[in-house]
Amino acid sequence: MGIQDLLFIGSLILVMYLFILRPKIREQKETTRMLNALKRGDKVLTQAGMFGEVATVKDHLVTVKVAPNVNIDFAKTAISKIVNEKEAKELVEKGDA
Protein backbone atom coordinates (compact mmCIF):
# COMPACT_ATOMS: atom_id res chain seq x y z
CA MET A 1 0.00 0.00 0.00
CA GLY A 2 1.35 3.35 -0.99
CA ILE A 3 0.91 6.72 0.66
CA GLN A 4 -1.87 7.58 -1.81
CA ASP A 5 -3.87 4.56 -0.71
CA LEU A 6 -3.52 5.54 2.95
CA LEU A 7 -4.53 9.12 2.21
CA PHE A 8 -7.56 7.90 0.27
CA ILE A 9 -8.69 5.60 3.10
CA GLY A 10 -8.06 8.36 5.65
CA SER A 11 -10.12 10.84 3.65
CA LEU A 12 -12.98 8.32 3.36
CA ILE A 13 -12.99 7.84 7.12
CA LEU A 14 -12.99 11.62 7.64
CA VAL A 15 -15.91 12.10 5.24
CA MET A 16 -17.89 9.32 6.95
CA TYR A 17 -17.28 10.95 10.32
CA LEU A 18 -18.28 14.42 9.15
CA PHE A 19 -21.40 13.45 7.23
CA ILE A 20 -22.70 10.39 9.05
CA LEU A 21 -21.44 9.99 12.59
CA ARG A 22 -21.19 13.60 13.75
CA PRO A 23 -24.81 14.59 12.92
CA LYS A 24 -26.10 11.39 14.54
CA ILE A 25 -24.12 12.07 17.73
CA ARG A 26 -25.46 15.65 17.83
CA GLU A 27 -29.03 14.38 17.37
CA GLN A 28 -28.62 11.87 20.21
CA LYS A 29 -27.32 14.60 22.53
CA GLU A 30 -30.29 16.85 21.71
CA THR A 31 -32.74 14.00 22.33
CA THR A 32 -31.11 13.14 25.66
CA ARG A 33 -31.23 16.81 26.68
CA MET A 34 -34.93 17.01 25.75
CA LEU A 35 -35.80 13.83 27.67
CA ASN A 36 -33.90 15.00 30.76
CA ALA A 37 -35.79 18.32 30.65
CA LEU A 38 -39.25 16.69 30.62
CA LYS A 39 -41.48 18.01 33.38
CA ARG A 40 -45.08 17.82 34.49
CA GLY A 41 -47.37 19.83 32.23
CA ASP A 42 -45.30 19.53 29.04
CA LYS A 43 -47.29 18.68 25.91
CA VAL A 44 -45.63 15.76 24.17
CA LEU A 45 -45.88 13.61 21.07
CA THR A 46 -45.00 9.96 21.50
CA GLN A 47 -43.42 7.73 18.88
CA ALA A 48 -46.78 5.98 18.66
CA GLY A 49 -48.35 9.26 17.51
CA MET A 50 -50.26 10.02 20.70
CA PHE A 51 -50.48 13.56 22.01
CA GLY A 52 -50.78 14.20 25.70
CA GLU A 53 -49.66 16.10 28.74
CA VAL A 54 -46.96 14.80 31.04
CA ALA A 55 -48.50 13.88 34.40
CA THR A 56 -45.43 12.40 36.11
CA VAL A 57 -41.80 11.75 35.25
CA LYS A 58 -39.80 9.03 36.94
CA ASP A 59 -36.38 7.58 36.12
CA HIS A 60 -37.28 5.79 32.89
CA LEU A 61 -41.06 6.12 32.96
CA VAL A 62 -43.33 8.97 31.88
CA THR A 63 -47.06 9.01 32.61
CA VAL A 64 -48.93 10.89 29.88
CA LYS A 65 -52.49 12.13 30.29
CA VAL A 66 -54.17 11.61 26.91
CA ALA A 67 -57.76 12.34 27.97
CA PRO A 68 -59.59 13.19 31.18
CA ASN A 69 -59.01 10.33 33.64
CA VAL A 70 -56.89 8.44 31.07
CA ASN A 71 -53.20 8.14 31.87
CA ILE A 72 -50.79 5.95 29.93
CA ASP A 73 -47.28 4.97 31.04
CA PHE A 74 -44.55 5.25 28.42
CA ALA A 75 -40.85 4.54 28.50
CA LYS A 76 -39.06 7.87 28.56
CA THR A 77 -37.43 7.02 25.24
CA ALA A 78 -40.87 6.69 23.62
CA ILE A 79 -41.37 10.45 23.83
CA SER A 80 -40.67 11.83 20.37
CA LYS A 81 -40.77 15.54 21.12
CA ILE A 82 -42.21 18.33 23.21
CA VAL A 83 -44.86 20.28 21.29
CA ASN A 84 -47.07 23.29 21.87
CA GLU A 85 -50.80 23.42 21.12
CA LYS A 86 -50.38 25.14 17.75
CA GLU A 87 -47.73 22.67 16.58
CA ALA A 88 -49.87 19.71 17.71
CA LYS A 89 -52.87 20.94 15.70
CA GLU A 90 -50.71 21.47 12.61
CA LEU A 91 -49.26 17.97 12.86
CA VAL A 92 -52.70 16.42 13.21
CA GLU A 93 -54.07 18.39 10.27
CA LYS A 94 -51.12 17.43 8.03
CA GLY A 95 -51.45 13.80 9.07
CA ASP A 96 -47.81 13.54 10.20
CA ALA A 97 -48.72 12.36 13.66
Question: Can you put this structure into words, describing what you see?
Answer:
By secondary structure, the chain is α+β, with helices and mostly antiparallel strands. The protein has helices spanning 3-36, 85-94, and strands at 43-46, 51-57, 61-67, 70-75, 79-82. A 5-stranded antiparallel β-sheet has the order 4-3-2-1-5, with helices on one face.
Distance between the termini: 52 Å
Arithmetic mean of pLDDT = 89
Overall geometry: elongated
| Share of helical residues | 40-55%
What is the number of helical segments per DSSP (H or I, 4+ residues)?
2
Q: Return Rg in Å.
A: 20 Å
Number of strands: 5
Q: Runs with pLDDT <50, length 5+?
A: none
**Strand fraction:** 25-35%
User: How many strands, which pairing sense, and closed or not: the largest β-sheet?
Assistant: 5 strands, antiparallel
Helix- and strand-based class?
alpha+beta
Order of helices and strands: HEEEEEH
* Strand order in space, largest sheet: 4-3-2-1-5
